[in-house]
Design brief:
Distance between the termini: 17 Å
Order of helices and strands: EHHHHHEHHEHEEHEHEHHEHEH
Number of strands: 9
Radius of gyration: 19 Å
CATH class of the largest domain: Alpha Beta
Number of domains: 2
Mean pLDDT: 94
Strand content: 5-15%
CATH architecture of the largest domain: 3-Layer(aba) Sandwich
Low-confidence stretches: none
Oligomer: single chain
CATH superfamily of the largest domain: Malonyl-Coenzyme A Acyl Carrier Protein, domain 2
Structural class: alpha/beta
Strand order of the largest sheet: 7-2-1-8-9
CATH topology of the largest domain: Malonyl-Coenzyme A Acyl Carrier Protein, domain 2
Shape: globular
Length: 327
């Protein structure tokens, strides 16, 4: 059984509210997170406005608290104990809280600082991200290299180093690229010639590329000062896509994650090849469950795959019990 935790892109106003209203444990999660950052995340999550919720520095802790609240309720009410935890980008912090490596108090403060650092790393309007649909890993890597070379040639004196890189290997045929606005636009134009569909993403900064180096340096300093405890279960870091039980490298892996590609597809293939076929997503929406269906489609264990999403009290009482075979 693997517990999955989503990152940015899965949010919606109202997330986490049903857990907060029905379980004291969930209320304690939102209260602790709000107190740690001196921000009323309850109001942001339950009422919005969406414009405030989606600010990166607000969104990252809000998603963390929503996921952890759902997980802790399942942990207590159903005695749910995963063998492995995995989180997509920001979700890796949720996975590590669930695994006992980082306290909720520290994680909330860390992800708020992470959001602020990522936003400050690149001036607004100079970065861009896009989702490429239809290309394979090798095609997209070459596409990014060619687009970077063209952007450097066209803009030799630009304010930022011209670059576009793969940012998220999400699923077969779904790869997100990130970099300077000019380089990403060149890459999306080139993608059309390869019959790869390109969709610009509405994000506030070019995440998971070398332009995030200032944010990585800032977060590395904070992470090295953070107490990291032993893991209660295994987890899969975004940086390595390997199942790990080692806690000593967590701080370094989290800081490196900021300016490196998220190996989500590779992480889930590792889980499948290790014999895991039951996955439960904790948080807002079902983004990771959708990706998992695509990732597992052509795998030998595809017919054994079981997925559930825990987004509210109703889904907790139905999907999670059904998938795990609990009475």
């Amino acid at each position: 059984m693997i517990a999955l935790f989503p990152g940015q892109g899965s949010q919606k106003v109202g997330m986490g509210k049903s857990f907060y209203e029905n379980f004291p444990l969930a209320r304690a999660v939102f209260e602790e997170g709000s107190d740690s950052c001196s921000v009323d995340f309850k109001k942001l999550c339950f009422e919005g406005p969406e414009s405030d919720l989606t600010l990166t520095e607000n969104l990252q802790p809000s998603l963390l608290l929503t996921s952890v609240a759902a997980f802790r309720v399942a942990e207590k009410e159903l005695e749910f104990t995963p063998q492995v935890c995995a989180g997509h980008s920001l979700g890796e912090y949720s996975a590590l809280v669930a695994s006992g490596a980082i306290t909720l108090w520290d994680a909330a403060r860390l992800v708020r600082a992470r959001g602020q650092a990522m936003q400050k790393a690149v001036p607004e309007g100079l970065g861009k991200m896009a989702a490429l649909l239809g290309g394979n890993d090798e095609q997209v890597a070459k596409l990014c290299a060619d687009a970077t070379a063209t952007a450097i040639k066209n803009h030799p004196e630009s304010e930022l180093p011209q670059i576009v890189e793969p940012a998220n290997f999400n699923a077969p045929g779904q790869i997100v690229i990130s970099g300077t606005k000019e380089a990403v636009e060149i890459a999306t134009a080139m993608a059309k010639d390869l019959r790869i569909k390109a969709l610009p993403l509405n994000v506030s900064a070019p995440f998971h590329c070398k332009l995030m180096k200032p944010a990585r340096d800032s977060m590395n300093e904070l992470l090295q000062k953070t107490k990291i405890s032993d893991l209660k279960n295994a987890y899969i870091p975004n940086r390595t896509a390997r199942i790990s039980r080692e806690s000593e490298n967590i701080a370094s892996l989290l800081s490196e994650q900021i300016d490196h590609v998220v190996l989500w597809k590779q992480s889930m293939l590792t889980a499948l090849s290790s014999g895991h076929t039951q996955f439960i997503e904790f948080g807002s929406g079902n983004v990771l469950s959708g990706l998992m269906k695509r990732i597992a489609k052509d795998q030998p264990s595809a017919d054994l795959l079981k997925l559930a999403g825990v987004t509210d009290v109703e889904s907790l009482q139905s999907s999670i019990k059904e998938i795990a075979g609990w009475k």
